[in-house]
Amino acid sequence: MNAKISFSDAALAGAIKEKRNLDQAVRFLYQEHAAVTRSFIMGRGGSEQDADDIFQETVISFIDCVQKDKFRFESGVRTFLIAISKNLWLNELRKRSRADNREKAFETDREQEDPGVSEAIGDRELKQQLQKLLSQLGDTCRKILTLFYYENLSMKEMVDHLDYENEQVVRNKKYKCLQQLTAMLKQNPVVSKQINELINK
Amino acid sequence: MSQSNELILIDYLDGNLNAESTLQAEQLIREDKTVATEWAYLKMAVEAVELDAIRQQVTSTRQSMKAAAGMAKPEGAVVRSLYKTSLRIAAIAIVLLGVSIFYKYATVTNASVYSQSFVSYELSTTRGEQQSDALENAYRSRNWNEVLSQYDSQKEKDNKSRFLAGMADLELKKFPDAEQAFQQIIASNTKTGDSYFQEEAEYYLALSYLANNQTGQGVALIDQIKANPNHRYYPLAREISGTNLKIIELKSKK
């Protein structure tokens, strides 16, 4: 099926928030909004791969933002996505130490209108570390924690998705997985720094 | 932190508490810094799980789109020419740059680099490790003087206890003592060929050097960590501005 899907901004946000048709929503985001971001990044020293990576991060940040009710329609979806992409790319350029005049000129492109943008991006280094830790957690724990904390399934529903006998076994396993993940977070210096700053604020 | 508090937090996180217990959990988080820290880690864990789930979904959709479209070509990618800046803007930019360089030079010090780079070390608690020794318990309670007292009374010292003592020294701003503790770890590993607490010791030794105004040694060690992406403290070392390190090196030579 190659039929083009269409969503209004509100319908798109609704689908993402409710996790209904999430696959279709992601397809729509790519079909409608990837090209303009690609133009921006490739026009400012980025490669095709950079454009792909930045747009993927943009979509992830946007979905996270919508699911946490942080997207408040202060701007349209397209404007918001472009602003996220621009900010991510400028941050990436800075990281690559291209702190030359060209980058300074691009700083004027940084979107300031929507306060939700910087909130949506968050700390990319932190997000990368979190991703790295999750990939080290092991498939079983990853699945259990995803089913519970992202899919919001009950213990009873989780038994159907997992190879465990009953709810109590799943509950114990989920507890151990959460403990394992928090122990890994504590050992990670980037995460510890973030938590320290949060606690000592 | 006690196991009962940990269970309360997880039940609170999972929405399993009644109204009264919820209020108690919230009060506990407000009033006890150790509990607040554990709570922050639990929330971070959930954040990590959510982001991972979204990433998996997006990656999977993207892959299936690419497979279906045979890697669709970008639509209308327009490579714009670089912006032309006028001489006037360039002149203003140069003046502003000069002012910012002067300001940076004046404000960057060993102490400022140290304080921006120092991160308290968190000792993890896992189930089945409740019999941890008095030194570790004191460390978890952030009772730094007790950590040092327990360390001094230990007959057999290992790298973990040396490291925790070094961190307690840093927390108490006893920088020369911290430096000594971290150096002992590295010396011990060199002798035995182990790497127990090696990377932790290297990062915090570098910071101790900076705090003790041994700038050259501190910067060299930070550069060494920055050169190794597999180093546990690489992400933190990378965040330390190379310009700031150059400035403090320059100042130290004056």
Helix run count of chain B: 13
**Main β sheet profile of chain A:** none
Q: Whole-Å distance between the termini of chain A?
A: 52 Å
Number of strands of chain B: 0
Radius of gyration of chain A: 19 Å
Q: Overall mean pLDDT score of chain A?
A: 83
Task: Throw out a few tags for this protein.
heterodimer; A: 201 residues; mainly alpha; 11 helices; 73% helix; 0% strand; globular; B: 254 residues
What does this structure look like?
The complex is a heterodimer of chains A (201) and B (254). With 201 residues, chain A is an all-alpha fold. Chain A is 73% helix and 0% strand. Chain A has 11 helices and no strands. Chain A is globular. The model of chain A has no long low-confidence stretch (mean pLDDT 83). Chain B has 254 residues and is an all-alpha fold. Helices cover 72% and strands 0% of the residues of chain B. Chain B contains 13 helices and no strands. Chain B has helices spanning 3-13, 19-31, 33-69, 87-107, 110-117, 134-140, 144-153, 159-171, 175-192, 198-211, 215-226, 234-239, 242-253. In chain B, helix 6 (134-140) runs antiparallel to helix 7 and helix 8 (159-171) runs parallel beside helix 10. Chain B is globular. Mean pLDDT of chain B is 85; it is low at 72-82 and 127-131. Chains A and B meet through helix 2, helix 3, helix 5, helix 7 and helix 8 of A and helix 3 and helix 12 of B.
